[in-house]
Amino acid sequence: MMSLTIxxxxxxxxxxxxxxxxxxxxxxxxxxxxxxxxxxxxxTDTVPGLYLSAQLMTTWGEGRGLAREFLLSxxxxxxxxxxxxxxxxxxxxxxxxxxxxxxxxSEEDRRNxxxxxxxxxxxxxxxxxxxxxxxxxxxxWTPERIAAARxxxxxxxxxxxxxxxxxxxxxxxRADQSTRTIVSIVRAAELGLxxxxxxxxxxxxxxxxxxFRAVTVPLGKLLGIVEVMRRGDFSERLxxxxxxxxSTVADGINAMADDxxxxxxxxxxxxxxxxxxxxxxxxxSKEQQATASEIAATTTEIGATAKEISATxxxxxxxxxxxxxxxxxxxxxxxxxxxxxSRMESTMQQVMEAAGAINAKLAILSExxxxxxxxxxxxxxxxxxxNLLSLNAAIEAEKAGQYGRGFAVVATEIRRLADxxxxxxxxxxQMVKDIQSAVAAGVMGMDKFSEEVRRGMQDVQQVGGQLSxxxxxxxxxxxxxxxxxxxxxxxxxxxxxxxEALVQLGEAAQQTVESLQQSTxxxxxxxxxxxxxxxxxxxxxxxx
Length: 544
Hints:
The chain has helices at 6-72, 76-102, 107-136, 143-230, 245-336, 341-399, 405-462, 467-537. By secondary structure, it is an all-alpha fold. The protein folds into two domains: 6-218, Up-down Bundle (Four Helix Bundle (Hemerythrin (Met), subunit A)), CATH 1.20.120.1730; 287-529, Helix Hairpins.
């Protein structure tokens, strides 16, 4: 029974109920056909025979009464009228007997009919002489003969009465029998209909209950497993020990549950991976933010150093202007003669002091340039680290899929800013190298200048006659001062360019910080999305 489908069960139930109803209809048809035959027989045989036999009995009784009336008549007219009525009664009897003959269906009825006809004919034959004698007068009829004729006629009439009564009784018996047969057939039909209806109703109820159980039991199990899955529990599976439509539906639900469980498990794993990637990206973003902060601080320090270099360069320019003026004055004093030698000595002493100051300033400038070179090296390393971190962030954002697209854009912008920082740092490094070269040249020039001044002082002190040589040497120093002045001016311009580059570097660092803040916001939003996704799928329970 469990292997039958719902469709076959429904068809089987309807087939059994229809079979019972068909059997009930067949039996009812047979019973009603039999009742119809009995009714036809009653209509064509029993009822007409009973009616005609009763009419025959009535007409026979009327004929006997007319015969007595004939015998009791006194006048010829009365006897004639009675004889005419008797003749009409005979004709009526013959018509009734002829009609009755058409209704005869059985041998017994025909025997009774033949006997009644024979006795009636004997009665007519016996009655005819009496009627003829009564019409002609009683000539030749003695009282004894009349009494004997009446006795014989009475005996025949009695037998006719008995024959007609037998016919009437037979028809009545057959009518009662037909009535009982019809009643029994109707009762049997009623009983058969009740039994068939009860059987059909019982089978309908039984099969309806079986169909109800066949539908509600697996349907209840299906609704139960659907309710369990609705609560997020995909660890349960539906097992129906049957092979019908519900088994197919159960297999479909189990397959759907397996697919959903696999999908949810994959989503959970992806959620964990996304959360891990977000954590790594957040850590990378924090590292980049810290790096950007370091770059900003370093840029501030470099800006301060560049300002100091610019101030030092300006002081050197002013000092070189003073040295140039002093050299010109010295040349004028030397050209004035030997008398200004003492003044020239003091002036040379001032020149030596100024040269020492210049050497000190140039040493400070060289040291600052070295510091700038170290800072530039640090900025280059930071830019390389930022580039690597932005590349790592882009890789992690690519792993996060569509949730990391915004962060991938931020990582690309950070990498672009890091590249710009590297290029600006390279420009600064080149400028610092130029400044160092110019400073080195200035130091070398100042060293030579100091040596020349010392030699000039010795010559002035030792040989006054060598004044002309000193004048020439002093005059030769003026172009060198101009070269040193030009170098100082170039150094000041380079310091200004460094300041501008550091301003640009500061702006780039600020943009980097802002980009990292946007990246942090995007990471927070992505973390919220990941948390919402994990909380949404956390309620699902999967099979172990």
